[in-house]
Amino acid sequence: MEKMEIRKAVLKKRNAISKAERREKDALIVKHLESLPIFQKSANILIYFSFDGEVGTHKFIEKWMKRKNFFLPRLNSVGTFLALPVESIEDLEPNIFGIFEPKLRMEYAGRKPELDLIIMPGVAFDKNGNRIGMGKGYYDLFLAEKKDIPRIALAYGVQILDQLPSKPYDVPVDMIVTEEEVIRCKS
């Protein structure tokens, strides 16, 4: 199957999860994530602000933002994103896709945070850490320069497939946290 077909099939399954079931699954995923030593020791974390059926991160960010330095992606004009600090959920604004991101302020210009951990979304994953996102390549471009930073994906069990196609420029994740398990990838 091609990436586009896989994306469509997995999104259909993910979107079929009821709100009540999603809340339960999100709670289990967060519990698994919080128990990981890599999360516990990380201070500077790039995370996503969940959107459109992704594993929920809003409450998680609010819970931990006084103890961790969170950064969110902010799209830029060169087809990738900047990792900008989250100081308050109220300071976020929607981008062209409707995804909330930090406002761009002059004091952030040119600054690149020293990240300890990247927590990311995706549409589909396999146990080798291969991933299919929404197809724009923002994360692949960002991750290409940060291959030494641990990468954890949050996903529902229905998003895990046996094998996914991958290209040389695709950057795999190191771990996938689902409601059922923590998968340490073979990549």
Feature tags:
single chain; 187 residues; alpha/beta; Rossmann fold; 22% strand
**Which structural class matches the secondary elements?**
alpha/beta
CATH domain topology: Rossmann fold
What is the CATH first-level class name?
A: Alpha Beta
Strand coverage percent: 15-25%
- Estimated radius of gyration: 16 Å
Termini Cα gap: 21 Å
What best-fitting shape do the alpha-carbon axes yield? globular
Largest sheet report: 7 strands, mixed
Helix percentage range: 25-40%
Ranges where pLDDT stays below 50 over 5 or more residues in a row are none
Number of strands: 12
Instruction: List the secondary-structure elements in sequence, H or E.
Output: HHHEHEEEEEEEHEEEE
| DSSP helical segment count | 5
User: CATH superfamily, please?
Assistant: NagB/RpiA/CoA transferase-like
Mean pLDDT: 90
Taking strands numbered 1, 2, ... along the chain, how are they ordered across the largest sheet? 3-2-1-6-9-11-12
Count of separate structural domains? 1
Explained architecture:
- The protein is an alpha/beta fold and 187 residues long.
- It has one domain: Rossmann fold (3-Layer(aba) Sandwich), CATH 3.40.50.10420.
- Helix content is 26%, strand content 22%.
- The chain is built from five helices and twelve strands.
- It has helices at 3-15, 19-35, 37-41, 58-64, 138-144; strands at 44-46, 69-75, 81-85, 92-94, 100-102, 117-120, 124-126, 131-132, 151-154, 160-161, 175-177, 182-184.
- Strands 3-2-1-6-9-11-12 form a seven-stranded mixed sheet.
- The radius of gyration is 16 Å and the shape is globular.
- The two termini are 21 Å apart.
